[in-house]
């Protein structure tokens, strides 16, 4: 059914157009945030690669559980004050650190 005051050629009316514009605006911001996350992670991995070489050169173990415990406690507090689920923040950090430890192990094997 087509009614000229609510629909255009695609069956979308003025309200749908506003919704599409809002969705597009929000998605532009999401794309910018995702790009920032990628750039920040790339910088973090540049640092951790250096840590990996330092540890391998000085025969230090790839993982440091005490350091991780401090990082998790700190990140959970930051998450809480930012109204982000602390459990999610912890899972994300653990996911990143697991990848870093894998890199450290690769560096140590090739040293
Ligand atoms: O700080 C270190 O010792 C690191 O190797 C870096 C890092 C991290 O990614 O933050 C990774 C592994 C360790 O278990 C703890 C922290």
Mind explaining what this structure looks like?
This protein has helices at residues 14-57, 65-81, 86-110. It contains 3 helices and no strands. The longest helix has 44 residues, at 14-57. It is mainly alpha-helical and 111 residues long. Helix content is 77%, strand content 0%. The chain is elongated and about 65 Å long. It has a domain at 41-110: Up-down Bundle (Chorismate Mutase Domain, subunit A). Prephenic acid binds next to helix 1, helix 2 and helix 3.
Helical residue percent?
A: over 70%
What is the helix/strand order?
HHH
CATH topology tier name of the domain at 41-110: Chorismate Mutase Domain, subunit A
* Structural class computed from helices and strand pairing: mainly alpha
Protein name: Chorismate mutase
EC number: 5.4.99.5
Pfam families: CM_2
Enzyme class: isomerase
Which descriptors would you attach to this protein?
111 residues, Chorismate Mutase Domain, subunit A, binds prephenic acid
């Amino acid at each position: 059914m087509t009614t000229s005051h609510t629909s255009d050629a695609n069956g979308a009316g003025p309200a749908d157009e506003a919704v599409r514009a809002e969705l597009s605006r929000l998605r532009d911001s999401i794309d910018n945030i995702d790009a920032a996350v990628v750039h920040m992670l790339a910088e973090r991995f540049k640092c951790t690669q250096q840590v990996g070489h330092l540890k391998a050169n000085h025969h230090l173990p790839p993982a440091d559980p005490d350091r991780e415990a401090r990082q998790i406690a700190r990140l959970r507090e930051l998450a809480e004050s930012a109204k982000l689920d602390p459990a999610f923040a912890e899972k994300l950090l653990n996911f990143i650190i697991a990848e870093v430890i894998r890199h450290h192990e690769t560096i140590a094997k090739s040293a």
